[in-house]
Amino acid sequence: MHYWLMKSEPNEASIDHLAHAPKKTLPWTGVRNYQARNFMRDGMQIGDGVLFYHSSCPQPGIVGIAKVSSAAYPDPTQFDPTSHYYDPKSSPEKPRWLLVDVRFVKKTPLIALATLRDHAELADMQVLARGNRLSITPVTEAQWRFITEHLV
DNA sequence: GCCAACGTTGGC
DNA sequence: GCCAACGTTGGC
């Protein structure tokens, strides 16, 4: 069992989109970074906890809890020439990009980025690291507990 | 809109 | 393999 923080732009896929999706589940399309892909491929297991984070928006921060609900499988948007996420260098025979399904658990009050930074217990969170741009980052069990027990 | 930080590309 | 140029992310 591992824990993750996954960033999403709310105008693309918000916590409300997830909550109202069929089966409360969305495929996590659009990851085009090898490190983030490798986390999904090599690190994630069904049932892993996910902190759902809104980025590139007026109030960036954690807005909900979700969980990993599938193993990694090829992201279909990489094969679709009309998709923003199309990758001409990828092929169904040799898919380059993967995704996992993510299932809604609950919404939380906004835990703003500034709030995360305020807590010494979270100082080592990868998402808070200087210059971090990864859309998927691991969260330690201690960080997960602190957030879900004290900040939610 | 600005800009720091980082990843990727491609020439050599 | 190096590295400059370019593109992207994402907070502010």
Automatic annotation (TrEMBL):
Q: Which CDD domains match?
A: EVE
Q: Where is the EVE domain?
A: 3-149
Tell me which InterPro entries the record gives: 5hmC_binding, EVE_domain, PUA-like_sf, THYN1-like_EVE
Pfam families assigned to the protein according to its UniProt record, in alphabetical order: EVE
Which superkingdom?
A: Bacteria
Cite the Gene3D superfamilies for this sequence: ph1033 like domains
What is the protein name given in its UniProt record?
RNA-binding protein with PUA-like domain
